[in-house]
Amino acid sequence: MNETAVVKAQPSGGADFRDVATAHTPFRTGRLVLWVILALVVANFAWIVAHNENFGWPVVARYFFDPTVISGLYVSLGLTVIAMILGIVLGLAVAIARMSSDRLAKSFASLFIWFFRGTPLLVQLIFWYNMSTLFPQLSITIPFGPTLASWDTNSVITPMAAAIVGLALNEAAYMAEIIRGGLLSVDRGQTETAEAFGMTKARALWRIIIPQAMRSIVPPTGNQLISMIKATSLVSVIAMADLLYSVQSIYNRTFEIIPMLLVAVIWYLLITSILNVGQSYVEAYYGRSDRRNGEAAKPAAATDEASH
Amino acid sequence: MTAVHNARPLVQARNVHKSFDQLEVLKGIDLNVMPGEVVAILGPSGSGKSTLLRCINHLEAIHKGYIEVDGEQIGYRVRNNRLEKLSSSGIARQRRKIGMVFQQFNLYPHMTVLQNIIEAPVGVHKENRKDAIENARRLLDRVGLSEKTDSFPRQLSGGQQQRVAIARALAIKPKLMLFDEPTSALDPELVGEVLATMRDLASEGLTMIVVTHEISFAREAADRVVFMDGGHLIEMGKPEDVIGNPQHPRTQAFLSRFL
Ligand SMILES: Nc1ncnc2c1ncn2[C@@H]1O[C@H](COP(=O)(O)OP(=O)(O)O)[C@@H](O)[C@H]1O
Ligand SMILES: [Mg+2]
């Protein structure tokens, strides 16, 4: 009522122009020029790379699906998955220990994080691999008492075991801090409410706190996962035949170093791209309660990326 | 509305003391609440009202005295003639007959309204899921929100969230309901809908302890009004006496601000 009165009072019908429904976005010439220049530079660079014979693209194509490369790829992926799962589970335990009121658990967790974050992963891997020179025998004993069981270290800590243990423990230290940050980000009132409703601490954590913490845990965990894929290349130093090790073993024969490294690089990029898409789905899932219109999780960003 | 007299009190607090470090917040509280009784607690901010409520379901541990709910001492048990602290799972079990409604609603934001309500019945009280859902729908209907079953808390107004929180607390079929300033975080025009829901509960004979600043609610819905100041219960009695004709100067001063 009032509005129409105001509009009518406007001289020369000026209000029609001001109705935002009629607005359009002005054409931004500068932006277009920038995009064209950028596209040209990228295309030109791609063309140069594609036609540079030193890159050896035919070699890249020939070895891309080579059985050695593929089996190396499986090793890298398998290591990543196993070490990441162990890292997350152990990290969660360490995070909870660090946040508990129990002094012993707290200091043990801090010590764990301090040590494994504070030393280079490469050194940790070499240590695990060479465990047998430090401790030739692994035994289960009662402290200062009799021995219950004993094994030869080399038979227990194979290169595979050394790689998994090394990667997982290192990962757990980082994941513990990420998870702790996530748990701390949840409103105190939520824990209190869960307790007031008679939930046990474990149930409150599992049903109420962790699902809410996921929103701040997922993005850095995606980061960790991608770092982990690349960190698995370190295990080539302990003679594990991962992706990097397998291309190395080929170029040691053929001396086609750059093309073989390109094979590895393209595989690493492919995997991380897939992980990025997966991450945006997971993020959308844990952000679904934020959507005002209450639609089920439909990750717009993810579908965008997937269609590229 | 009518309290059953000559029965055993549902809640008994005796000489309850509570301190945070050096600060003594509860300085010897004695309070009985009979089954079916509605007790409103009034008092200035910082007088210890929330702390008293939180001691009743052991969200805070008391330092002296004892609190009993439904015949069980909260937080402790007697064994071999000695009092021993309950484990956290023992305390969790005791809390299962006490519903609580918070000033900030504290709905679980990652769950829908329905999931919020059935979480404790299914997960804690091990109720059959289908029955729990049916009961949740009935409760939502009762608080006037049956069309919001699948909404997330963020999509609701404050008043609607608080009514869901009340339904959630009722879903565990509590013997006692604690309300800590349930309308204080609401816009003035939303207070009425929540108070109306609480009036209904009061008239249906639910035992309730309500911390509130809504004087008219206390006057109309409560069987008894308690005035609290500086960690003491200063005045206690029928609403028409405590609100209509306060005896203690502090009660008079406090109430005069609402006139
Ligand atoms: N967790 C706590 N730690 C320290 N002091 C607290 C804590 N909770 C409450 N207090 C103090 O106890 C006093 C009473 O608080 P509260 O029970 O919340 O009062 P009310 O609900 O009546 O406003 C206040 O002085 C408050 O600062
Ligand atoms: Mg309070």
Compact description:
The complex is a heterodimer of chains A (308) and B (259). Chain A has 308 residues and is mainly alpha-helical.
Spatial order of the strands forming the largest sheet of chain B: 8-9-10-3-11-12
CATH superfamily (homologous) name of chain B: P-loop containing nucleotide triphosphate hydrolases
Order of helices and strands of chain B: EEEHEEEEHEHHHEHEHEEHH
The H-and-E topology of chain A, N to C, reads as HHHHHHHHEEHHHHHHH
Say what oligomer this is.
heterodimer
Number of strands of chain B: 12
Q: Which small-molecule species are bound to the chains here?
A: adenosine-5'-diphosphate, magnesium ion
Structural class of chain B: alpha/beta
Please give the share of residues in helix of chain B: 25-40%
Number of helical stretches of at least 4 residues of chain B: 9
| Rg value of chain B | 18 Å
Number of separate structural domains of chain B: 1
Q: Strand portion of chain A, in percent? A: under 5%
Number of H/I helices of chain A: 15
Average pLDDT metric of chain B: 93
Organism (chain A): Phyllobacterium salinisoli
Function (chain A): Part of the ABC transporter complex GltIJKL involved in glutamate and aspartate uptake. Probably responsible for the translocation of the substrate across the membrane.
Protein name (chain A): Glutamate/aspartate import permease protein GltK
Domain ABC transmembrane type-1 (chain A): 73-276
What are the SSEs and their pairings?
The complex is a heterodimer of chains A (308) and B (259).
Chain A: H1 2-9, H2 15-18, H3 29-51, H4 57-64, H5 67-99, H6 103-118, H7 121-129, H8 131-134, E1 137-141, E2 147-152, H9 153-156, H10 159-184, H11 188-196, H12 201-231, H13 243-254, H14 257-286, H15 300-306
Antiparallel strand pairs in A: 1-2
Helix pairs in contact in A: 4-14, 5-6, 5-10, 5-13, 6-10, 7-10, 10-12, 11-12, 12-14, 13-14, 14-15
Chain B: E1 11-20, E2 23-33, E3 38-42, H1 49-56, E4 64-69, E5 72-73, E6 76-79, E7 82-85, H2 88-95, E8 98-101, H3 113-123, H4 129-142, H5 158-170, E9 176-180, H6 188-203, E10 207-211, H7 215-221, E11 224-229, E12 232-237, H8 239-242, H9 249-256
Bound molecules: adenosine-5'-diphosphate (ADP) and magnesium ion.
Residues 49-50, 180-181 of chain B line the site of magnesium ion.
Function (chain A): Part of the ABC transporter complex GltIJKL involved in glutamate and aspartate uptake. Probably responsible for the translocation of the substrate across the membrane.
Protein name (chain A): Glutamate/aspartate import permease protein GltK
Pfam families (chain A): BPD_transp_1 (PF00528)
